[in-house]
Amino acid sequence: MNKKELAESMADAADISQAAAARALDGMIAAVTKALQEGDTVSIIGFGSFLVRDRAARTGRNPKTGEAIEIKASKSPAFKAGKALKDAVN
């Protein structure tokens, strides 16, 4: 399912226009992005949590040459599924 199909599904479920659902989806994505940029965690009970994980600096290898390279520390967005979502999938 892509973003457009998700907005269409939201519109059908909420009985609103597809344009309104697309705006709501864009707003939700923007709100989650802003919260993660500020270092917050976004928790949706029964669905899951969006959070930022720190990745430590490490040594990697250039696959072409086999040369060792240093990979910088970084932050990575992550999603942890909630119990209700896990149960729905299984």
TrEMBL record:
Keywords: DNA condensation, DNA-binding. Coiled coil: none annotated. CDD domains: HU. One of its GO terms (biological process) is DNA replication initiation. One of its GO terms (molecular function) is identical protein binding. The keyword DNA-binding applies. Gene3D superfamilies: IHF-like DNA-binding proteins. One of its GO terms (cellular component) is HU-DNA complex. Histone-like DNA-binding protein which is capable of wrapping DNA to stabilize it, and thus to prevent its denaturation under extreme environmental conditions. PANTHER family: DNA-BINDING PROTEIN HU, DNA-BINDING PROTEIN HU-BETA. Belongs to the bacterial histone-like protein family. This is DNA-binding protein HU.
